[in-house]
Amino acid sequence: MKCDGIPSGCAISGLMSEEGRRIDGSVIIRSIASMHDRSNGLGGGFAAYGIYPKRKHQYAFHMMFDNIGAKETTEEFFKDVFNVDKDEPIPTHRENGIRNPPILWRYFLEVPENKLEFITERDYVMKIVMQINSEIEGAYIASSGKNMGAFKGVGYPEDIGKFYKLEEYSAYIWTSHGRFPTNTPGWWGGAHPFTLLDWSVVHNGEISSYGINKRYLEMFGYKLELRTDTEVIAYLFDLLVRRHKLPMDMAVKALASPFWKDIDRMEPTQKNIATAIRQVYGSTLMNGPFSIILGHSRGMIGLNDRIKLRPMTAARKGDMLYLASEESAIREIAPDLDTVWSPKAGTAVIGTLNEEVE
Amino acid sequence: MESQLPAEFVVNVDHEKCRKCKRCVINCSFSAIEFKDKVTPNNRQCVACHRCATFCPENAITITENPLDYKDGYNWSPEIRKNILKQAESGGIILTGMGNPKPYPIYWDHMLLDACQVTNPSIDPLREPMELRTYLGAKPECLDFDGDVSLKTELAPQVKIDIPVVFAAMSYGAISLNAHKALAMAATRMGTLMNTGEGGLHEDIAQYSDRIIVQVASGRFGVTSKYLNSSALVEIKIGQGAKPGIGGHLPGEKVGEDISKTRMIPVGTDALSPAPHHDIYSIEDLSQLIYAIKEATDYKKPVSVKIAAVHNVAAIASGIVRAGADIVMIDGFRGGTGAAPMIIRDHVGIPIELALAAVDDRLRQEGIRNRASILVGGSIRQSADVVKAIALGADACVIGTASLIAMGCRVCQKCYTGNCAWGIATQKPELVRRLNPEVAADRLCNLLTAWGHEIQEVLGSLGINAIESLRGSRERLRGVGLNQETLDILGIKHAGIGQ
């Protein structure tokens, strides 16, 4: 069921409340729906943060299964590696034209303490995610973070949103994606967002440096099974920020590096840092056209490629940060804005939740 | 003994056009043209170096292969028969120069590059920055920051090159001082590097030392503390693609006053480079030498180790990286030489394409690819080879023969005779004088400038604007006419297979 795909056109939209106010899913659906023509019905999806406040210390695995056999195999495997606190079907609304969904099930999981003698909890969970995606035929993890979830499938994003009853969830960060793949039959696992642990990525574009980004990640134990470039973005952030502990703005400098001509003109300390980042992290540079919205447990980040070959608009209203492929998608849900701007190439828009938000 | 060997080439002189100016006679350094009332070729001496034909003002000279047919015999080719005749007459090892000319597969010519269409835009290198800058040296696995602003990690020394092509090791002795000067000047102007080879650093090029790789080979010629520190980086030469496992021999007749000083050996003595370093009999000995050099240079210069591509090259390279080398330089079996036994040049080693792929894979599997840069040489003929080598995983390429050709070399393979008519592979003052270092440097700069533009064009068509996004990106290569095993070793898919 896995298939090769080149994501192409695509629409992305994201919103967050820095104060941690929870907003229901109908808002983000309206925003992404306004860019209907940027997708072609072969993929839509959402990531939401803050949706499971009562179970925020557990890993929420959103699973997709091709068949009941894959579900049983996965559940057997879960028994060995996790404490399964709760599992249930992901609620869906079946009468709106979404066809042939896989079995959609979610699990709230805890890591048994005896598993963590030689490995950190997140590395342990990451390994299991890699293992399930690559080794259990017919099972695919849509998301694996805490207090967050991805909802995605084959269809227009607004239909996928209604299918998952997103109006019943409320989140302080929402990101969304409408897909326009050029040469792929629809595959539920291939829709955006792509996720790993708390990271989620929605992506408009194509990473032309995919080949080396992938080989670099493989050196650090990542398994890139989906053969799509969006996957590498989530993993690169995971590697640089979580594992190598780079400050977020340094990670962004690695992924969308300034040009040497600009680095050469920086003042010495900055120049030294930017040079070292390019020397050490050259293989992580994401080259080629992209605009992405990255969601994580503490915020949302918008980033364009270093020559801005794909569109992105940002806006603020009060504590709200909006990012979208088109300004219209922001005006649709927030007609009256404090500021609207077009982020510069390679310059990240970094939104961070206030510290008191739990 | 009267030679039975037929002439290899025939020099044809159009006596209608010839004005008897004798320029050809003066120019021929192989005594293949005499003047006896008219220009009279001595075909047996001709090596097809084209010097006479190039300088004939009337275009009256052409050179053709001797059209002497041999009785058909696939097994006993004319070349094999001629070699037997040579040895029957001389009793010696057949010497030769330049790289392996045999029709072994050239894998570069079986790899094709990708380009952007529709879904991702190509980039116009005339309008957008297109970055070729490369840093050679060991990189840490990750950077460590103190808080959000200051960098804690201190990097090992890095050498910046503005184009990922550096000049190969060719010693003063194998080539002339004028050739060395040209390479040093061109390297400086183009922001790349030249390599002294094992013959020491002549005082005339010491001014370019921050663009010079100084070599430490088994003969240790000219190696002093000053020599090691007058450099961009230091290279330990273990082997050479043209003659893996073989030492070197510069005959005493070439060791004049200047070479004697530079190599620090008496005038007129043979300069013998032993086959192994006599202080390196295993990997731990290599590690000692690497660190001895690092100590001698105060850890300010990257140390490179150059090896020939042999069967077990991946494991050897891994050992070299773990022994502390900052750069591994791999020389493929087609690499050039000033002199080598033909049997070694033509039959020992493996192609650089396969060696590079195997080394890059191995270092990645072991998680140590960041700990050393990979330089490759051994017949990089054109910018397309550079692009493909970088896509396979090289940090930069090394060019020897191509740089000699740019200066005028006709690849006649007679470097070992010392008669180079172009003033490159010779120490005879009257021949060396023929090579104007300024002009030769211009020609080298032009070549690199042209290749730089070509590499930028390819990057643009690939939709990327920095060379590091190509490095190791084998996804952008496809094989044509290669079997599965070769594709697996190269780590590429066959043409026709999509993403």
Distinctive features:
heterodimer, A: 358 residues, alpha+beta, Glutamine Phosphoribosylpyrophosphate, subunit 1, domain 1, 7-stranded antiparallel beta sheet, 5-stranded antiparallel beta sheet, 10 helices, 18 strands, 28% helix, 27% strand, disordered N terminus, B: 499 residues, alpha/beta, Alpha-Beta Plaits, TIM Barrel, 2 domains, 8-stranded parallel beta sheet, 3-stranded mixed beta sheet, 23 strands
Give an overview in words:
The complex is a heterodimer of chains A (358) and B (499). With 358 residues, chain A is α+β, with helices and mostly antiparallel strands. Chain A has a single domain (11-352), classed as Aminohydrolase, N-terminal nucleophile (Ntn) domain (Glutamine Phosphoribosylpyrophosphate, subunit 1, domain 1, 4-Layer Sandwich), CATH 3.60.20.10. Chain A contains ten helices and 18 strands. Chain A has helices at residues 26-33, 68-81, 121-135, 157-163, 210-219, 229-243, 248-255, 260-263, 268-281, 327-331, and strands at residues 11-17, 23-24, 44-49, 59-65, 83-89, 103-110, 139-143, 148-153, 170-171, 173-178, 194-196, 199-205, 290-296, 299-304, 313-317, 320-324, 339-341, 349-352. In chain A, the strands form four sheets. Chain A has a seven-stranded antiparallel sheet with strand order 8-3-10-1-16-15-17. In chain A, strands 11-12-13-14-18 form a five-stranded antiparallel sheet, with helices on one face. In chain A, strands 5-6-4-7 form a four-stranded antiparallel sheet. In chain A, helix 5 (210-219) crosses helix 6 (229-243) and helix 7 (248-255) packs across helix 9. In chain B, helix 8 (313-322) packs across helix 10 (352-365) and helix 11 packs across helix 14 (437-462). Chain B is an alpha/beta fold and 499 residues long. In chain B, strand 8 (145-146) and strand 9 form a beta hairpin. Chain B has helices spanning 23-27, 51-55, 78-90, 177-190, 225-229, 257-263, 283-296, 313-322, 342-347, 352-365, 383-392, 401-407, 429-432, 437-462, 484-490, and strands at 9-13, 33-36, 38-41, 61-65, 95-96, 111-113, 134-136, 145-146, 150-151, 159-161, 165-167, 194-195, 212-216, 233-237, 248-250, 271-273, 303-308, 327-331, 340-341, 373-377, 396-399, 477-479, 493-494. Chain B is built from 15 helices and 23 strands. Chain B has two domains: 9-92, 2-Layer Sandwich (Alpha-Beta Plaits); 134-494, TIM Barrel (Alpha-Beta Barrel). The model of chain B has no long low-confidence stretch (mean pLDDT 96). The radius of gyration of chain B is 24 Å and the shape is globular. The chains are: A alpha+beta (358), B alpha/beta (499). Chains A and B meet through helix 5 and helix 9 of A and strand 9 of B.
